Amino acid sequence: MSNASSVISLNITQFPQNLIIPNVANVVSIQVINNSSKNENYQFSFEGENLNISVKPDEFNEQVEFGPGETKNIELRLTPTADGFGKLTINANWLKIVQYTVKVQKVRDVASTSKIKQILGKKEYNLSKTIEKLNPNEFFISMDKNELKQLEKQYSSIKRSPERSNQEIESMIQQLAKGYLANNNPQKALEFALEIPDDTEKMNFYYNIIRAYASINFDYTFQMVQGISDINLKQTLLHYLAFDRIDTDISQATSISNFVGDELLKAKLLFFISKKLYETNKKLEIVNNLNQIISILAKSIVLNSNNKKIKNKSYEFLKDAIWVLAEINSPQTADTIIEAIPSQELKEKVAMDLFNVIYEMVDEIRTKVESTLISSQYFILNTYASTVNENLKNFSLIGGNVSNNILAKDFNFNVALLSLFSFDFSIFPILDRVYNDLRYSLNKSIAYYILPSKENYNESELGVLNYTLKLFFDNLARSSSQVFVYNLDFIPYLGKPTIIISSEQDIFDYINSKIKKLGDFVNLIIDDSLFKGGKIVENLNQILPPNKCRVINLVLSYEFINDYNTFKAFIQSLI
Prior knowledge:
22 helices, 7-stranded mixed β-sheet
């Protein structure tokens, strides 16, 4: 056998020369050698057409590992499923392990760029730009009840006076509100605050009264704000209260943010708180705030899938929160957050915009198994799956064989070669080869029948001969032309390819006319005694239909065995 690769050698050490029939050990043995200097893996496949195949050992039904230079043996047992021919295909695949490098996206160990201060310091996150610091002491005026009542009478009088000024009214209202606030009566203070004529001044003072009272009684103030029915007013006051508590009780400021319903306002507040926390190195609290921002916004942002470049404040807040989280905690945490975003479009956009911060492309060595067909061989065997009796079984066990056209009952031939003698070698390979070459290459047909006698055709072997000839050649009588049946034998070397035939003149003339084209490099001898007639010929004449078959003794010297092309040319000349 030839192989497509030197990595493995497959050698056939046993091959059936006999007709393949059921209930006979039709064994094909294969020696497999791993020529590699390292461990290799192979995959073998054994395919049968009109054949069932049993593989031993079982490991050859799967991937097989060979050590360096290791040899293993495979045994195939063949069972035919049809008369005529069976095709055995043996494929060997090398499962080669190949390393290759690919660029893969990987989460960074550390964020590539530090922008925490820049992000937390953005002007849109700085509440100090929109909310003024408050000095609570400015909103408390110490007065007793009598002083308050006296001031209220003056206010009532001035309020009714046509000569009053708004400035004078506002000043007195603020004094009264601050006085009641100092006397722990915020409700009364707020009632007066709402009487300020100018709307802007009224609301500013109203907010400041509440903010100032929160500095001395936060719990009550917070409950009071929570009870306000006007949503916008309540959200603004919560915003102010959180801002005021950042410098005194930052954890309380964070708690207040939980009650802020507006998403952007809440995100802005949490960013401002995070900036203060960063200044005091409280990273855990910052992480909690960022997680809140991300949780709120990731569920609410809807991107238009046709315009992934969309920009809005909510998205910027979300992206900044994930960026800071990647720096202050780890890129792995940020990646986990991104993967959890419900919207696929939003997830992809954030990952793309923050790619250089969180991710990097690295070379990664991977391995793959490449299956390479390194050997593929097929063999055609003659098969008979019909009823098998003892004679047919002995025929196969002796080494008997028949060309597959006879088995398929195709009698479109006029030359049949019968080899009925034993040699030190098997005659099957050369007969089968010439049969296939003529049939498939030149579209010419012959037939062959082999029964290598072991006991010089004793009674048992004659029984096998008679039974199988009748079985296989029974339909020869229906052939459209006469068939020349050559009782083929071989003798040792004579120094030149030599043909010996029986002495019938018509046969000599016929064969001589056929082989003229071979030229004088072969000898043709007519035999008058030794190679003429015989018991076997008599049996053949009795078994084969005489009106269709002409039995001829044909002897060839061993030179034909050693020169296949000469043998083929001779057989071809007989057709």
